[in-house]
Design a protein that fits this description.
With 295 residues, the protein is α/β, with parallel strands linked by helices. The chain folds into 3 domains: 70 residues, Winged helix-like DNA-binding domain superfamily/Winged helix DNA-binding domain (Arc Repressor Mutant, subunit A), CATH 1.10.10; 101 residues, D-Maltodextrin-Binding Protein, domain 2 (3-Layer(aba) Sandwich); 90 residues, Periplasmic binding protein-like II (D-Maltodextrin-Binding Protein, domain 2, 3-Layer(aba) Sandwich). It is 41% helix and 22% strand. The strands form 4 sheets. It has a 5-stranded mixed sheet with strand order 4-3-5-14-6. A 5-stranded mixed sheet has the order 11-8-12-7-13.
Length: 295
Amino acid sequence: MPDKFNELSSFVQVVAEGSLSSAAKTMGVSLPAVSRRLSQLETRLGVTLLHRTTRSLSLTERGRALYERASHLLAEIETAEEEVAGGAEALVGLLRVTATMEFGRRRLAPLLQEFRQMHPGLRIHLDTTNQDANVIDGGYDLAIRFGDLADSRLLVRRLAPNRRVICAAPEYLRQRGQPRNLADLSNHDCIVVGSAGETRWRLGDGQTLPLQRPLTTNDAELAHAWALAGAGLAIKSLWDVEEDLAEERLRLVLPQVALPDTSVNAVYPRSRDGAAKVQACIAFLTERLRSAVPA
């Protein structure tokens, strides 16, 4: 009977280490044993998982698909064992979190570092991305998202409010003037976070505002940089621009205009609802973020 667990764990370790010899050393087995397990796995599945040369190895398309699924499954097994060994309430094992790049770097990273210091038995991995990662397929325990969610497989907990504002650099406003109402925006350069065809800002109550020749990007951090550089007006979360406003690198524009409420939410699979580390992290983030909500 094939040893499926050792075959998969060897495969995952080889990919993670980048070589058979490093994987063998980490696992405490011989190089021939690792090579044999890989060959047995490929023979059993009937596919090539790795392209191997004397100097390098690379994943095939099917190998990459297997690695993504197998690495998550093995991490779950390891976490389950650590939780059982440490007790039901112990915060141990790996906590995988995903968030947007800007919020992840500016706000979430230092909070997760603090949370990790409070729980030495916990390992934390944070993925930041400008695209919404698939929480379930990606094997994440927790995602930090803005706004509504339409996936019944996931649970949502509101962490904190997220006020959004229109802002611009002082030099841009000096050159182009301060808008007094929404109609004035037709004479201004505006920055849009979205697809290349996006030419509108979404306002409160479902309204939209058509824009003239907007700068568009799918990268919220790039939109922030453009605003700071004086490229135009931008709609930004106060979480992202609070310091810029305080230090007058940016100024508020039309603060009376209502913008959509997109709260900061914790999103997680239903299967993780009872996980102590997930619930503890949500409680911690809720307390820290609500105490730091920008005015």
